[in-house]
């Protein structure tokens, strides 16, 4: 998930305020998101790039999208819904299905619901039950219990990244993720978007979705600690209902950190999240970098005045 991923990125101005392009890796390609449009660049079985541009729905670009705290919730929705939509589209193109065939609404929302349920169960409910049944009997402190739960949550997240990184198809997605970061880093540095020059840039970026999730997991420890150790089912309810609140706080922290990345203190704070990106990115080849460049160029071109 980019500027959940998502990851998100430019420091140029379209209208009055600077806008930062972001995106995410998809199957055999990259999606880049602009102020008003997105572009998806996917390499088909014939080796050619299929580039699709589409306008963003108003919810993802209105005033609420710029409102502190609320924007974090909108970004979460965008990552789930829009991210799933572009993934399904890329799967169609990469497998040479009919490009014009519309993704069924039921499939889109079913995939979103299943992904959300899986994420909540794995990263929030499983650590709670593990702590409650296997750790709490030996603890007398609600604070320590919440800390242990938080560390288990982070451990599950790291293990999950490690395991999915062993899957060959996911390795390719991670390489496209690295290509996305390299292109964004190069663009922000103001260099021409050419594969040879882009290759010299890092596969890590402070606005990456991996860093965002890590920040969310850290914030969750503090937020859940405020409620002590209520009954199991109240704890389950809090883990579900407070996710938007935690995501909103996490987004603001990530946004602040990314805009103050030159500060040594901020860089130390963001270092664990950046280090985790080594698990969700790979060094891309030139074809993968070309796909990311094509997506970014397309969305930039579409938003020229």
Sheet of most strands: 4 strands, antiparallel
Average pLDDT level: 91
Question: Per DSSP, what share of the residues sits in E-state strands of 2 or more residues?
Answer: 5-15%
- The Cα radius of gyration reads 20 Å
Strand segment tally: 4
Global geometry: globular
The assigned structural class equals alpha+beta
Distance linking N and C termini: 29 Å
Structural domains: how many: 1
Overview of this structure, please?
The chain is 60% helix and 8% strand. By secondary structure, it is α+β, with helices and mostly antiparallel strands. The protein has one domain (22-300). It has a 4-stranded antiparallel sheet. Helix 6 packs across helix 8 (243-259). The protein is globular.
Topology, please?
Blueprint (H helix, E strand, L loop, with lengths): L21 E5 L2 E5 L3 E7 L5 E7 L14 H25 L10 H30 L7 H23 L3 H22 L5 H4 L10 H17 L6 H10 L1 H17 L4 H17 L5 H17 L3
Antiparallel strand pairs: 1-2, 2-3, 3-4
Helix pairs in contact: 1-2, 1-8, 2-3, 2-7, 3-6, 4-10, 6-8, 6-9
Task: Provide a compact summary of the structure.
With 305 residues, this protein is α+β, with helices and mostly antiparallel strands.
Give short descriptive properties of this protein.
305 residues; alpha+beta; 10 helices; 4 strands; globular
């Amino acid at each position: 998930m980019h500027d959940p991923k998502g990851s998100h990125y430019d420091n140029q101005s379209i209208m009055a305020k600077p806008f930062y392009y972001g995106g995410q890796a998809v199957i055999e390609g990259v999606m880049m998101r602009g102020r008003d449009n997105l572009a998806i660049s996917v390499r088909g079985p014939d080796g050619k790039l299929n580039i699709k541009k589409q306008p963003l729905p108003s919810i993802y670009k209105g005033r609420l999208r710029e409102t502190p705290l609320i924007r974090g919730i909108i970004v979460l929705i965008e990552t789930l819904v829009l991210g799933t939509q572009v993934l399904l589209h890329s799967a169609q193109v990469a497998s040479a299905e009919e490009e014009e065939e519309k993704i069924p609404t039921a499939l889109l929302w079913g995939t979103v619901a299943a992904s959300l349920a899986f994420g909540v169960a794995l990263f929030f409910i499983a650590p709670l039950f593990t702590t409650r049944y296997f750790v709490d009997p030996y603890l007398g402190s609600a604070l320590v219990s919440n800390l242990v739960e938080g560390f288990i949550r982070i451990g599950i997240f790291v293990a999950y990244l490690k395991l999915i990184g062993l899957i060959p198809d996911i390795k390719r997605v991670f390489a496209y993720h690295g290509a996305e970061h390299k292109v964004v880093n190069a663009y922000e540095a103001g260099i021409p978007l050419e594969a040879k020059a882009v290759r010299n840039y890092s596969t890590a970026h402070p606005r990456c979705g991996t860093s965002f999730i890590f920040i969310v997991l850290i914030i969750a420890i503090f937020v859940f600690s405020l409620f002590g150790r209520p009954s199991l089912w109240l704890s389950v309810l809090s883990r579900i209902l407070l996710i938007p609140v935690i995501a909103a706080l996490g987004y603001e922290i990530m946004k602040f950190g990314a805009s103050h990345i030159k500060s040594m203190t901020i860089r130390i704070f963001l270092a664990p999240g950046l280090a985790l990106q080594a698990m969700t990115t790979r060094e891309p080849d030139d074809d993968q970098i070309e796909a990311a460049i094509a997506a970014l160029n397309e969305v930039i071109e579409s938003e020229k005045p």
